[in-house]
Amino acid sequence: MSTIIFETERLIVAKIDLQNSLEIDKLLNIHNDHETMMWIPNKKKTYNKNSLEIKYSINKGLYNISYGIYKILFKKTNEVIGEFGLFPYIEKPTSVEIGYIIDRRYWKKGLGTELVKNCETYIKETLHKQFIIAQLIEQNIASHQLLRNLSYQLIAKTTIDKLIVRLTLQKEL
Q1: Which site in 21, 72, 76, 124 is 20 to 30 Å from 114, CA atoms measured?
Q2: What is the third-level CATH fold of 4-172?
Q3: HSE-up of 168 (CA within 13 Å, CB side)?
Q4: How do 131-137 and 95-102 pair as beta strands?
Q5: Three-state DSSP class for 25?
Q6: Other Cβ atoms within 10 Å of 127 Cβ, number
Q7: Cβ atoms of residues 31 and 16 within 8 Å
Q8: Using an 8 Å Cβ cutoff, are 80 and 12 in contact?
Q9: Does the pLDDT at position 65 exceed 80?
C-alpha cells in the first residue's frame, strides 16, 4: 500500500501510486466528470492518462512527503474517491493551504467534513503550522458552508474571471 499521510474513520489519505493504472484510471474518471470538477476553476477541461500522470509527476517533484497531492481512499471499499492537496502558502509561512476534490457520488455524506477535521490535526501535529488556508469559488456553496461550520473565516475575495470570484478562508489552529 502507498504511504499513508493520515486516516479518518472512513477515509485514507495516501501517496498516489503512479504505477497503479487502476488508481490513475479512477482519478482520471473523477477529473473528467464535469459535475465533480465544476468547482475547480482551472483551464483544463479534459484530461487524458498522460496529462494526469504529468500533473502528478510534476507535483511529486515539487514537494517533500508532507506536501503535495494525495489520493483519498474510501476505507469500506478501498476505492479511490478523490484527491487531497496540501501546499505551502507562500504569503504566510505559518500557514498551509488545503484543497480537495471528492467524486460527486460521495457528496453529502459528511466525508468532506471528516477529511478537513482530520487534516487539521495532521497539519497542527505533523507540519506544525498555525493556520490553514482554503480557497474556493464563491458559487461552491456546499464547500463554503462546510468550512464556515468548521470555523474558517473569510479573509479575502478576489475576482479571477468575469464570472468567478475566489474566496480565501482561514482557520487558526
Answers
A1: 21
A2: Aminopeptidase (3.40.630)
A3: 15
A4: parallel
A5: helix
A6: 16
A7: no
A8: no
A9: no
Contact yes or no for 171/153 (Cβ under 8 A): yes
Q: How is residue 54 written as a grid cell? A: 504529468
- Portion of the chain with pLDDT greater than 90, in percent: 73
Task: Give the CA distances from residue 16 to residues 8, 85, 165, in Å, rounded to whole numbers and listed in that order.
Answer: 17, 11, 30
More confident residue, 13 or 92: 13
Q: What is the pLDDT of residue 134?
A: 97
Q: What's the DSSP call for residue 156?
A: E
Q: Is residue 32 over pLDDT 70?
A: yes
At residue 44, the pLDDT reads 65
Which residues, in sequence order, are bridge partners of residue 119?
none
**Nearest in space to 132 (alpha carbons), one of 100, 165, 164:** 100
pLDDT at 43: 62
d(CA 72, CA 78): 9
**DSSP assignment of 44-85:** -----HHHHHHHHHHHHHHS-TTSEEEEEEETTTTEEEEEEE
